Amino acid sequence: MSRTGSCLCGAVNFKINKDITETGACHCGMCRKWSGGVFLGVEVPGDQIEIEGRKNLSSYGSSPWAERVFCRTCGSSLWYRVTAPGPHHNAHHIGFGTFDTQDGVALTGEIFIDRKPGGYSFANETQKMTEAEVMALFGGAGG
Length: 143
Description:
By secondary structure, the protein is mainly β. It is built from 2 helices and 11 strands, in the order βββαββββββββα. Helices cover about 10% and strands about 40% of the residues.
């Protein structure tokens, strides 16, 4: 089943050609600043997303291994994309809130759990990874 989504103003639209059943949360400082809170994202290989309105996209190289992409018209945070070589290259971590519907998608994981502020937590059990575990996975700099 494909899913669709967009930025707030509709200048950027996307279609994901993959069944989406899980989302994850990132608690790193960059994601919290970029999203205004915890970032809920869905990992999608670059070849599984169709994007309309590319001329309305802008990006920011936020780390040696990723860029943050947003709508240059309304400023909506859309996704971060892994730019580093390796098995995750060109993976898009699309903001869950940008989807047109969130039905049938479960929160299953949290990363940078050791950076999570104490003021909130999720009720369901999730797989959790620390900053060191995530950095080992990506082989790079911190978030």
